Amino acid sequence: MPHQDNFVIDRNHSDNGRVAAGAGSTLIDALLRRAAMLPPRDRTLVELAVRNNASLRQLARAADMAPGCVWRRLRKLFSRLNDPIVVALTEPRNALPDVYRRLGIEHFLCGLTVRQLADLHQMNPRQVQRMIAHLRGWHRGFSAIDR
Fold this sequence. Notes:
Elements lengths: L23 H12 L4 H12 L4 H8 L3 H15 L2 H6 L8 H12 L4 H8 L3 H22 L1
């Protein structure tokens, strides 16, 4: 299936893919706040797509990538940005310690592996695995409260 050159991110879709009536700017602001935590190259790609409504061809030129690669990269990034655990980790009302929140964002949003996180935070990989397991359990409880 060929990609269209005029690809743009639809500003009328909410975080979970359903159309949001009139709430577009606040959802976009929340998405951009989460995107600010991404590595610079990914953050720039998301910001160009969302803020500037850049076409796929324009994004490919700016990122010096093939349009198909940009398409796949954006899909992966938006999937991570809209992942319910990432949304919950960035909620101001959650009471997680900063180290858990930081580790969760680096793992679930930025895609760092357990080994990379262990090296970055000078921890044992087993400790990192336990913290990630704790975050998954916390999220199940956190999302159950919202129901």
